C-alpha cells in the first residue's frame, strides 16, 4: 500500500454501491444524489460507478433495479462496473435449470419472479412446474437484463482497493480466488485483519447497520431491502465518504463503528 493511507485512482472519484436487493426506489434516489454530487464536483475525469452485486431477490422490484442500472449505463456519466453477487448467480442458475427453483425460493427468489410477472409454482416438489416457470421467466426478462448479470465480473481492483461481492479467502492470491469464495465467503474473511495482503477489500453480502470500516476492509451492505437504507462508498484519492439513500440520507464522513453482529443469512 502506498503512503500512510490507501489511495484510489488519482484524480478520479469512485463510487461503490452496496447490495440493492430489489429496492429500485432507493437505487433511483441514490443515483440521483451521486449524479448531483458529480455535477457539483465538476472534475474533468470520468468517475467510476461500481456495484458489488445482489441486485435481485427479497425486495419488491428486481426488474426495476436492473432497468435503473441499464438506464444509468446509457447516460454515460460514469465508467460502470457491475460485479455478480450470489443472488444474481441463483437467478442465472434458475434460468439454466428450473429444478434449482425451490432452493432459490428459500433465499428470496419469489420476489424476483413476481417482479417479472411470473408466479412461482405452489409445490416445491413439482419439478415439471419449476422447469416451466424457468422458461416463463427467461421469456419475460428483457435480453439486456440477462446479459447484465451474465457479463458481470467477479472482482475489480483499483490501486490500493479490491472490490468483490462477499470477500476473499485470506492467504490466497487474488488471481486464485474461487467464484464461490468471492460470492459467498463470510466468517473466515470477516475474522481476518488483512485478508488481501495489504489491499483494502470493499464488499457487500454481509449486512451491517452502518458501513463497516476497518483498516483493510469496508463493508457497504446496509440491508437495503429490510432497513430501507442503501449505501455507496465514495473513494477519491486518499479520502473516503459515504452517500446514502432512504431513512438515513446524505453524505457522511467515514467513521469506525462498533464491532458488528453479522447475520448468518445468505
Could you explain how this protein is built, in words?
- This protein has helices at 24-41, 62-75, 86-96, 101-105, 109-115, 127-140, 143-150, 179-184, 187-190, 224-227, and strands at residues 13-17, 48-51, 79-82, 155-158, 161-164, 200-203, 212-213, 217-219, 229-236, 239-246, 250-253.
- The protein has a single domain (13-253), classed as Metallo-dependent phosphatases (Purple Acid Phosphatase, chain A, domain 2, 4-Layer Sandwich).
- The model is unreliable at 249-266 (pLDDT under 50).
- The relative contact order is 0.18.
- It has a 6-stranded mixed beta sheet with strand order 3-2-1-9-10-11. A 5-stranded mixed beta sheet has the order 4-5-6-8-7, with no helix packed on it.
- It is globular.
- It contains 10 helices and 11 strands.
- With 266 residues, the chain is α/β, with parallel strands linked by helices.
- Helix 1 (24-41) runs parallel beside helix 2.
- A hairpin with a 2-residue loop joins strand 9 and strand 10 (239-246).
Major sheet details: 6 strands, mixed
CATH H-level superfamily title? Metallo-dependent phosphatases
Number of domains: 1
Helix content: 25-40%
CATH fold name, please?
Answer: Purple Acid Phosphatase, chain A, domain 2
The SS-based structural class is: alpha/beta
- Rg: 18 Å
CATH architecture: 4-Layer Sandwich
Strand content: 15-25%
Number of strands: 11
Shape: globular
- Unreliable spans are 249-266
Helix run count = 10
Order of helices and strands: EHEHEHHHHHEEHHEEEHEEE
Amino acid at each position: 500500500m502506498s503512503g500512510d493511507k490507501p489511495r484510489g485512482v488519482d484524480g478520479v472519484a469512485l463510487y461503490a454501491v452496496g447490495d440493492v436487493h430489489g429496492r429500485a426506489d432507493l437505487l433511483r434516489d441514490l443515483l440521483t444524489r451521486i449524479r448531483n454530487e458529480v455535477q457539483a464536483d465538476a472534475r474533468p475525469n470520468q468517475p467510476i460507478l461500481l456495484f458489488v452485486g445482489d441486485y435481485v431477490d427479497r425486495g419488491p422490484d428486481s426488474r426495476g433495479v436492473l432497468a435503473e442500472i441499464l438506464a444509468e449505463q446509457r447516460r454515460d456519466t460514469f465508467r460502470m462496473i457491475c460485479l455478480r453477487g450470489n443472488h444474481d448467480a441463483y437467478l442465472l442458475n434458475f434460468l439454466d435449470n428450473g429444478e434449482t427453483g425451490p432452493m432459490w425460493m428459500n433465499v428470496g427468489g419469489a420476489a424476483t419472479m413476481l417482479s417479472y410477472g411470473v408466479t412461482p409454482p405452489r409445490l416445491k416438489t413439482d419439478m415439471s412446474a419449476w422447469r416451466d416457470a424457468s422458461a416463463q421467466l427467461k421469456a419475460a426478462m428483457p435480453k439486456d437484463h440477462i446479459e447484465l448479470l451474465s457479463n458481470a465480473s467477479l472482482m475489480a481492483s483499483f490501486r490500493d482497493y479490491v472490490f468483490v461481492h462477499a470477500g476473499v479467502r485470506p492467504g490466497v492470491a487474488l488471481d486464485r480466488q474461487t467464484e464461490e469464495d468471492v460470492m459467498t465467503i463470510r466468517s473466515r474473511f470477516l475474522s481476518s485483519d488483512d485478508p488481501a495482503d495489504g489491499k483494502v477489500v470493499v464488499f457487500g453480502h454481509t449486512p451491517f447497520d452502518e458501513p463497516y470500516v476497518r483498516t483493510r476492509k469496508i463493508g457497504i451492505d446496509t440491508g437495503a431491502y429490510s432497513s430501507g437504507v442503501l449505501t455507496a462508498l465514495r473513494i477519491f484519492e486518499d479520502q473516503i465518504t459515504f452517500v446514502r439513500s432512504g431513512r438515513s440520507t446524505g453524505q457522511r464522513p467515514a467513521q469506525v463503528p462498533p464491532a458488528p453482529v453479522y447475520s448468518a443469512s445468505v
